[in-house]
Amino acid sequence: AYHGLYAAQLTTVQTPSDTMFGGLFIGSPGNQGVNGGIPYTVQPDSISVYVKYNIQPNDTAFFIVAFKNSGNMISMAVKTFIGTQLTYKRISIATNLPVSPVPDSLVAIISCSNLDPPRMPGSTLTLDSITMIGTNQPFPNPSFENWTPKTSEEPDNWTTINFGVAPSSQLSATKSTNVYNGTYAI
């Protein structure tokens, strides 16, 4: 951690059939970008964050915070990372928010690798202390001090999309004893 006890460290990992990037999201990732988000109704002029990273060759990490009004994107603050920064460094990213309309929500995508392939195993991005500059409405959980354990069961040799709904209280694929044959069904 740079401040407090915790930070968020994202790592790209190799799975048996794919390479998965470490990611943080505010909102729900989908085909059309990030849906939903959280209420956010002020206009910061920039966002600062403390980062350190080790991005593998041919890979890129992303820090993206977007502001929406009535579901439409009105501005994005984007920073990419390549190479290596082994100690925390404070960066600042302009929000480029227009005077009007005022945002009503905020979404975020933070990843330690390319969002589309290729992704390189071993890329890491560690971040802490996200601050909105020019406003008093804070970024949610800006120093990653608050964590909630989330667990789900996965059927052996299968992957469900529970990872996409884990922040909610209801999982999309669960073990069931309502079976046709055997002990469990899904």
Description:
The protein is globular. The mean pLDDT is 90. It is 2% helix and 41% strand. It is built from 1 helix and 13 strands, in the order βββββββββββββα. Strands 4, 7, 9, 10 and 12 form a 5-stranded antiparallel β-sheet that branches. The protein has a 4-stranded antiparallel β-sheet with strand order 1-13-8-11, with no helix packed on it. Strands 2-3 form a two-stranded antiparallel sheet. By secondary structure, the protein is mainly β.
Unreliable runs, pLDDT <50, ≥5 residues? none
Total of DSSP H or I helical runs spanning 4+ residues: 1
Helix content: under 10%
Quick one: biggest sheet? 5 strands, antiparallel
**What structural class do you assign from the helix and strand content?**
mainly beta
The residue-averaged pLDDT reads: 90
Q: Give the overall shape.
A: globular
Cα distance spanning the termini? 40 Å
Short key terms for the protein model shown above:
single chain; mainly beta; 4-stranded antiparallel β-sheet; 1 helix; 2% helix; globular
State the gist of this model.
With 186 residues, this protein is mainly beta. 2% of the residues lie in helices and 41% in strands.
